[in-house]
Amino acid sequence: MKCEKIAVATENLNIDDIKETSRGQLLDSWKKIYRTDAPKGISRRLMEHAAAYSIQSKIHGQLPRSIQLKLKRFQNNSHNNKVSSDLPEGTVLMREWHGDNYRVVVLRNGYEWNNTHFKSLSEIARSITGTRWSGPRFFGLRRSG
């Protein structure tokens, strides 16, 4: 079933036709929908999703305020609960870096390295390398990219 065309950002877009929309048109739509330029280097896929969401919200209405608030609370809490959620307490992470071996122990409320407590793996990776790193990526828990 085709969605009816809705005027989005002064263009008539149809969800089914978004994939054929030019990148320039998607950038223009982003600017008109969000009243700001799209972030530098934004992927085409994200712009397509944003345009589709805009069309759907005009057809069906936006999420109820109660759901928006729940999602916002979840988002805020997820930033505070990053500590060792996937790894059991006592897990030992090993990493070789420039010829030295590093051993990190997962605690209930963070990590221990060099007899020091850390809240995040990224803090430890930064201490080891001297530069900003994703801790989970540095210790091989996440792939790059």
Structure description:
The structure is a single chain. The protein has two domains: 6-60; 92-138, no CATH class. 40% of the residues lie in helices and 19% in strands. It is built from five helices and six strands. It has helices at 23-34, 44-60, 65-80, 121-129, 135-138; strands at residues 6-8, 11-13, 92-97, 100-107, 110-113, 116-118. Residues 1-10 and 80-84 have low confidence and may be disordered.
Write the layout of secondary structure elements.
Elements: E1 6-8, E2 11-13, H1 23-34, H2 44-60, H3 65-80, E3 92-97, E4 100-107, E5 110-113, E6 116-118, H4 121-129, H5 135-138
Antiparallel strand pairs: 1-2, 3-4, 4-5, 5-6
Helix pairs in contact: 1-2
Unreliable runs:
1-10, 80-84
The main sheet comes to:
4 strands, antiparallel
Strand content: 15-25%
Please state the overall shape, judged from the principal axes of the Cα atoms.
elongated
What does the radius of gyration come to? Answer: 22 Å
Count the beta strands: 6
Average the pLDDT over all residues and give the rounded result. Answer: 82
Give me the side-by-side strand order of the main sheet: 3-4-5-6
Q: What is the CA–CA distance across the termini?
A: 36 Å
Whole-number total of structural domains:
2
The number of helical elements comes to 5
**What structural category do the secondary elements indicate?**
alpha+beta
The amount of helix comes to 40-55%
Features:
elongated; 145 residues; disordered N terminus; alpha+beta; 5 helices
Task: Provide a concise account of the structure shown.
The chain has helices spanning 23-34, 44-60, 65-80, 121-129, 135-138; strands at 6-8, 11-13, 92-97, 100-107, 110-113, 116-118. It is an alpha+beta fold. The chain has a four-stranded antiparallel beta sheet with strand order 3-4-5-6, covered by helices on one side. A two-stranded antiparallel ribbon has the order 1-2.
